[in-house]
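Hey, quick one: can you model this chain's 3D structure?
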Amino acid sequence: MPLNRRVDRPIILGIVGDSAAGKTTLTAGIANILGPERVVTICTDDYHRYSREERAKNGISALDPRGNYIDILEQHIKQLRDGHPILKPIYNHHHGTLDAPDYIVPKEYVILEGLLGYSTRAMRDCYDVKVYLEPVEDLRVKWKIQRDTGKRGYTEAQVRESLKRREHDSADFIRPQRTFADIVVQFYPPAGQSDETGANLNARHTLRPTLPHPDLSPVLDLGVRNGLKLELSRDIDGKPVDVLDIAGDIDAKRAKAMEELLWGLIPEAQHLRDKLGQFIDEHNETAISHPLALSQLFITYHMVKAAMGVHAI
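Sure thing. Here's the predicted structure for all 313 residues.
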């Protein structure tokens, strides 16, 4: 833990986004940095109320709060924040069934990732850091097809039909949660490279003033040629935000400079260093993305600062 940790309860990070937005990949990297002995990760999609077969019969999708035990999820997040164990349900994504629950004891850091983590005020009030993932839609579709055909036994036609069937629920229940995030992360292909789905994707961070973000000026002095750009902008709601763009083709030296800057801002966590930016590519092989690595480290910075009492609620 940070050497001068001042918060004596678990630090709670939320990562919310639509299906196949990259939540699990982002979460895994942050958990690796923090260390398995210090962090527990929870998928809030385990709180589905119905099995896949039941959803097919009743027409309520997994994106609809009515199809989830939202009240129990609220209770569990509060219990974790207070340092108490929970009996977490398990949704088997391969079989679409509800399995036996899992006994979870909170650790120094708790990461909750899933579809509906910010859907109520009671849940939102429990997080120290809130992240929303919104890859451009064409990219999310490709990621979902890759995941669901490769890991969950679906055909591409079934995945596309599911996406079409869920579109209204995505618009009604998932995307509105974006407004509650401290950081919005968007991965998108570089210009002229619409087929890119992995290591060379750009990352755009919309940084809201709800958190005190780090001073990145030491690595931004040379402008966009560095592969990094920070500028004041307006969010989709018209409110002022900082926007940090990380180019997919950022060179390793420049990416390393930003990593070192962030590590230097959290010297209390130097022992947490580990490999960053790992993901499974379309060939089912492990690859490295610098924008993903920097995104993971940037969010970890906020978690460590929260533990130090800088902006914990």
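One thing worth noting: The domain at 11-307 is CATH 3.40.50.300 (Rossmann fold).
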